[in-house]
Amino acid sequence: MDRRTFAILCHHLRTIGGLKGTKNMDVEEMVAMFLHIVSHDIKNRIMRRQFARSGEIVSRQFNAVLNAVLRLHELLLKKPEPILGSSTNERWKWFKNCFGALDGTNIKVNVSALDRPRYWTRKSEIATNVLGVVSQDMQFIYVLPGWEGSAADSRVLRDAISRTNGLKVPQGHYYLCDAGYPNGEGFLAPYRGQ
Question: Are 137 and 166 in contact (CB under 8 A)?
Fold first, then answer.
């Protein structure tokens, strides 16, 4: 993440997320600590040494930033809007009532030696399988992280649909997906070999 993006994220967390610095720690340090923990899967005891803070402070500030990030969901996740029949966009005009597209991606992670077999992908990497759903202008509508890298895309999609606050596809609408997903109600996959 570059400095400009980091500054924008901190600004949004302050203004929209309601994140406030403390007497001994400003918002930028809190966000840096949060991003470092999330991106590198670092334990609390290691963060204590790196940032010279107590374990309680690290945990408390991590939770404060996490709650602020969750309050940004209106900004970060877009409400789906179907493509209208009168669309003039050359790429999307053929997909009336389509909300967008979905696909899974593997993101490399660090896991304990005991869990590694579950996270092995078919490309021999240790990763987590993340389902991403985007609108036609590439804005995220839904994200489901946390599945093992060995999980099939269709299994992750079934889980996303079955959750109470999961992915919803209204009657008569659909998402485009690749051949790794079932071609069924609400999902349009291409013909094999296309």
Answer: no
**106 and 56 fall within a common domain:** no
The predicted model scores a pTM of 0.67
Indicate whether 83 belongs to any domain.
no
The boundaries of the domain holding residue 103 are 98-188
Domain total of the chain: 2
Phi, psi for residue 172 in degrees, rounded to 5: 85, 0
Kindly state whether residues 66 and 148 are assigned to the same domain: no
Tokens 């923990």 -> residue:
37
Could you say which of 14, 40, 75 is where a domain stops? 75
Residue 193 has pLDDT above 90, yes or no: no
> What is the rounded CA–CA span in Å between residue 85 and residue 87?
6
Length of the chain: 194
Q: How far is residue 146's CA from residue 106's CA, in Å, rounded to a whole number?
A: 10
- High-pLDDT (> 70) share of the chain, %: 99
- Confidence category of residue 154, pLDDT binned at 50, 70, 90: confident
